[in-house]
Each structure stands twice: as C-alpha cells, then as structure tokens.
Write a structure and sequence with these properties.
Oligomer: single chain
Structural class: alpha+beta
Distance between the termini: 14 Å
Number of helices: 3
Strand order of the largest sheet: 3-4-5-2-1-6
Shape: globular
Order of helices and strands: EEHEEEHHE
CATH architecture: 2-Layer Sandwich
CATH superfamily: Beta Polymerase, domain 2
CATH topology: Beta Polymerase, domain 2
Number of domains: 1
Number of strands: 6
Length: 103
C-alpha cells in the first residue's frame, strides 16, 4: 500500500470483538486511479503470497473498495468516504496500529 502512496494506513485487530474477521487494514486514496492501483497491488501481492481474495466490493465505484481475504479485510477509502464513515470510530474497541512510511 505504501508503494502506491496510500495515506493514513491503519491495521485494526478485531479478533477479540467480532467473528467477522481478524484484522481490518484501512487506508485513504487521493483519486480513483490511485484506489484502483492500490486495490490491484493488494490483490497481486496477496496472490503472490498464496492468498486470493474471497470477495471484492466497490471496485466499479472506487469511493470505498473492500477486499475480503477472510481473516484480513482491506478497506480502501476516498478521503470523503473515510471522513464520512469514520471507520476507526466504529471499531475503536479493537487494537489500532498506525503504519507509516519509514523512508
């Protein structure tokens, strides 16, 4: 995700609060082409690691793309959608880790 310049990347560990998944990975994209590039990169990277996505939603609209790998669900938000849905607030009982570019 950092390779595609995703912003405000967070991992939310929800193992103790839901059975939906183990982790949410969320990030913000600054444009539709960037959302598409991030989504494609995540899918390609996971596939190389031997894990194909189970389900993808929102790819045709790119405002909020969800890529479900079962134990990990990746959410790629536009800036507007990230602010509107306040995803971190919804899952605030989980353990939230910020991921930052180390360059």
């Amino acid at each position: 995700m950092l390779d595609k310049k995703a912003l405000d990347i967070k991992i939310i560990d929800v193992r103790t609060i839901t059975t939906l998944t183990d982790f949410f990975v969320i990030c913000t994209s600054e444009s539709e082409p960037q959302s598409r590039a991030i989504t494609d990169h995540v899918n390609e990277t996971m596939k190389k690691e031997g894990t194909a996505s189970w389900h993808t939603e929102g790819y045709q609209y790119l405002d909020w793309v969800l890529v479900d790998f079962v134990s990990i669900v990746v959410h790629i938000f536009s800036k507007k959608a990230r602010e509107y849905y306040e995803f971190e607030r919804l899952w605030a009982d989980g353990s939230i880790t910020d991921i930052q570019d180390k360059k």
